[in-house]
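User: Reviewer 2 asked us to show a designed sequence for the structure in our supplementary figure. I'm pasting the structure tokens here. Could you produce the per-position amino acids so we can include them in the response letter?
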């Protein structure tokens, strides 16, 4: 989806439905679309803040203004990428509000600078496990474990209205990057299948427009990932290749600035295919086993 024309509603508090408001952070980019969307769930008395976003003074000021005199029942993070969770700590300190949501991410990898995209300072007061809920006046949020984009990713279901806050697991503007070693394509596909089996009315992603036909989009995303898998296998049938050779062939017409991220998802597909015995590798080169 192309970037929409400016001005974007950065810093504005937009009412999406009676229990849901949205505040857009000023961190738009080719990787975040118009920016991270922070959601306020509740009314003027008590709210949950979903994905507080980056620790930027202007964004925190916009959140404070939107929250007003309401009590913050919980600050909830879908995952701990740096465009999602860093504002949790200063907002918690200013409002004496608990951070409740995904678990901290501990990377079990010695790859250089593997933790650069992650907020390693994230410290929740309580971790919500799959199926656990928190509530306020007239609203209930239930955690739904959706690993894949990251191992600690959660979605949050607003039970009263069948709205699902999908973080980066499902977005309305782009496919999701699955970047090893933490991102896992098999987990991601299983999480998509889990969402496809639900009856949510609408998705509110952290980036991009609301998704008003959720199951149709998820079905298309599953098909898209399977198509990428078949594409990789066709290319490898022509001979061994490394990821740097696969990406230009697979992502023709895609902004080259996004190729490194695309390469991460290709790598996640290859690792998944390797586990299933469909491909093999020697060094950086991947092949079809004979």
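Assistant: Here is a per-position design you can include in the supplement:
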């Amino acid at each position: 989806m192309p970037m929409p024309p400016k001005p974007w509603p950065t810093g504005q508090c937009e009412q999406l439905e009676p229990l849901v408001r949205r505040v857009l952070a000023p961190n738009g980019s080719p990787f975040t679309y118009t920016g991270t969307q922070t959601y306020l769930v509740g009314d003027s008395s008590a709210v949950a803040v979903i994905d507080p976003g980056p620790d930027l003074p202007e964004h925190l000021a916009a959140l404070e203004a939107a929250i007003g005199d309401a009590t913050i029942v919980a600050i909830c993070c879908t995952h701990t990428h740096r465009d999602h969770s860093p504002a949790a700590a200063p907002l918690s300190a200013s409002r004496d509000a608990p951070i409740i949501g995904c678990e901290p991410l501990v990377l079990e990898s010695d790859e250089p600078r593997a933790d650069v995209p992650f907020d390693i300072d994230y410290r929740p007061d309580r971790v919500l496990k799959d199926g656990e809920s928190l509530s306020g006046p007239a609203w209930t949020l239930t955690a739904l474990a959706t690993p894949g984009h990251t191992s600690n990713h959660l979605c949050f279901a607003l039970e009263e209205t069948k709205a699902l806050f999908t973080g980066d697991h499902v977005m309305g503007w782009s496919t999701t990057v699955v970047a090893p070693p933490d991102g896992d394509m098999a987990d991601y596909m299983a999480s998509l299948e889990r969402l496809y089996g639900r009856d949510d009315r609408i998705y509110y992603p952290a980036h991009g427009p609301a998704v008003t036909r959720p199951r149709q989009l998820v079905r298309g995303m599953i098909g898209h990932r399977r198509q990428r898998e078949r594409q990789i296998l066709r290319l490898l049938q022509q001979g061994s290749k490394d990821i740097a050779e696969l990406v230009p062939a697979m992502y023709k017409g895609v902004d080259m600035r996004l190729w490194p991220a695309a390469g991460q998802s290709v790598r996640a597909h290859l690792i998944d295919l390797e586990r299933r015995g469909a491909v093999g590798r020697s060094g950086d080169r991947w092949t079809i086993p004979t």
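For the response letter, you might also mention the following. The helical segments are 57-67, 88-95, 185-196, 214-237, 243-250, 259-275. Residues 139 and 160 are 6 Å apart (CA to CA).
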